[in-house]
Specification:
The protein is mostly helical and about 40 residues long. Helix content is about 65%, strand content about 0%. It starts with a helix and ends with a helix.
């Protein structure tokens, strides 16, 4: 369970780093629900 959560966090981090920069200029966009839809 914990290992799976780590992999999900890593996937979120890479997704936000790639897609979030164009949205807000940071790795944490203001619309986390959109990031969750990608996964």
């Amino acid at each position: 369970m914990v290992h799976h959560q780590i992999k999900v966090v890593q996937a979120l981090a890479s997704t936000l780093t790639a897609g979030g920069r164009g949205v807000t200029g940071t790795a944490f966009p203001n619309q986390p629900e959109q990031a969750l839809k990608i996964i």
